[in-house]
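Issue 218. Parser rejects a valid record. Input:
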Amino acid sequence: MARMNYHHLYYFWRVANTGNLTQVANEIHLSQSAISAQLKQFQENLGVSLLKREGRKLILTSQGKQVLEYADEIFSKGEELENLINKGIPSQSSHVAIGVLSNLSRNFVESFTLPLINDKFTTFSLQTAGLSNLLDGLSSFRFDIILTNHNIELGQQKGIWHSELVSRQAIEIIGPAKPRKARKFPQSYADASWVLPSQNSEIRSAFSIACARAQYTPNVKAETNDMAMLRLLARDSGAYSVMPSVVVRDEVANGLLYVQQSLPDAYEHFYAVTLAKKKITPQVQKLIDNAKSDITVMT
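Output the parser choked on:
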């Protein structure tokens, strides 16, 4: 094989990390045709196909994913070398790209990222999306880790994903009035109206099971698949709701909402998902370990 052209590798690295040839062309001030020609030459020199087009997107092949892993490390080391030359000290900075399921509690996500917020050497990015887009981003190395309330490992056939439980939070009944005495479900909610998560959620399933066991039919005023909207409905509708109290942490602290009681034997589970065959960086491992250390406390 001919000596590797690192200009070509750099163009591939930029395009592979964005999936957008136009964006890269604008950022590095080259024409799209010039970058396309360079990428074509690079692949011909390597003797493998690294990228394929699906619609308007450029998707990494299996060989492309392997090359990108090396490119990430090469250019990360290059930044360290440049910093050493310019400042005389090695760079300690790093970046963590996190994908977040769209309907996940924002308060939970903020708590999960707290170690990064307090780490002056690490930056991070958060991007919300649906589950299929998150998994696609993980497989194409746009994300280092994704957060979801689904155990992705269940039902998978090829062992692509590694799904790790990082939090298990009690599902609680939340209401607008301070409870005067210990409440019991369902006796204390005979005339209550409810705002609830949508039918396909883990929280709603747990609530439905509790209602079925108690032979209780709730009066459902509204339902939503958006936890941020559920938080607003719980705060402003005057109805009861069910969710982990972390979702309405600020409202509870300010006396706008009150935890009535825990739903019996009901929990929402939060998972950190990574690629099974990709080495986890120390920064990502620190996030996982920190979150797991609080599992017992948060339940």
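Fixed in the parser; the record now loads. The first strand starts at residue 51 and ends at 54.
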